[in-house]
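Aim 2 progress update. The chain analyzed this quarter is reproduced below.
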Amino acid sequence: MDISTLIAGLLTIAILTFLYRDNPIYKFAEYLLVGVSIGYALVIAWTSTMMDLLFEPLAGGKFSLIVPLTLGLMIFARMVPRFSPLSRIPLAVLIGSGAGAAIPAMLGPRILTQMSDTVGNVVGTGAGPSFSGIVVLIGLLATLSYFYFSRPHQGALGLSAKIGTYFLMVFFGATFGYTVMSRMSVFIGRAEFLLSDLLGFMK
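Predicted structure tokens:
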């Protein structure tokens, strides 16, 4: 057994001690995980972003990158109350450019494509309409009616909104079940690591 496997096993056991109760061993492992993750992310961001995309191109003569460098440095003006209004300029550029790039990119796959698929599935591939497509369309309209708050949920609108709550409960239940199963998969993986790699009970 190498030292890395031993350390990984001990840290896994330290995390699992939280199943008993909150304790200093668990906190140590938690803080170590957060610290190592942040340190790793900073190193990756420095090497792959700052060095590769900013400093090395600047050294190569791409002086147009002075503009984003200046905007990035202006964000730190928030640390000085006298110059804090300067930090609003790069934030405005970041939010505006991000929204301008995200809206056209998301309009197609998240709205137009889903609308066409929802309506297209009602027709189906055979001679008659698709049952699953009809269910999806009913669920979509009922769920949207639940979030329509301009009128009281009474009469037909109230019935549609109530049906929408059932579809929402099915969605949240399926999402919760998927989350539980993914967490169980992680736990099974760590248990298999402890029993096989660390303790050698499984081969």
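Residues 128-203 form one domain. The CA atoms of residues 15 and 30 lie 7 Å apart. These observations will guide the mutagenesis experiments scheduled for the next reporting period.
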